[in-house]
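Chapter review: from sequence to fold.
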Amino acid sequence: MLRSLQAAFERAAMERLTLLLNHVLAAEPVATARLAVHAGATVQVQFAGWPSLLPALPVVAYRITPAGLVEWLGDERLESPALRIDVDASNPARALADALGGVRPGVLVSGDAALAGDVQWLIDNVRWDVEDDLAAIVGPGAAHAIGRVGRAIAAGVREMVRAASTLAQRVGAAGPGDR
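The token string follows.
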């Protein structure tokens, strides 16, 4: 029963993630144009070194549609995707802290170089304009205020992660007699 609940949660989460990705892509005509060139190509993301004590992560495989959006392929593991991205997930806590601090994880990319270049361009240039989406619901003034608070919280979390990382490095560098 626990496995079926986990599978249902994973499916729902991946479907929502796919909707979010397509929402962000659709807001940028340049992004969809860059992806449309690769219609039919598949991209698979794998998390290398994921700790076996943690629940397994779902398969993250997408097919690019003719509209330049992505279609999640469910639990399908691809034999030979056009682009394969292996993300270092050997230390999930560290990866989360790095992500909150704005540091990208270690990644190994293999496959179609043109597709890899366009995916890299998307990562570097496409951002979700949360404030714009909120404005459609609560109005521009409230959306700006919520955005300002969100940015302040994010900056505080990044600073906290930076300070914790610095402290951890100092403690790790200190010898046994120094403590």
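Two observations follow directly from the output. The radius of gyration is 19 Å. The CA atoms of residues 42 and 63 lie 4 Å apart.
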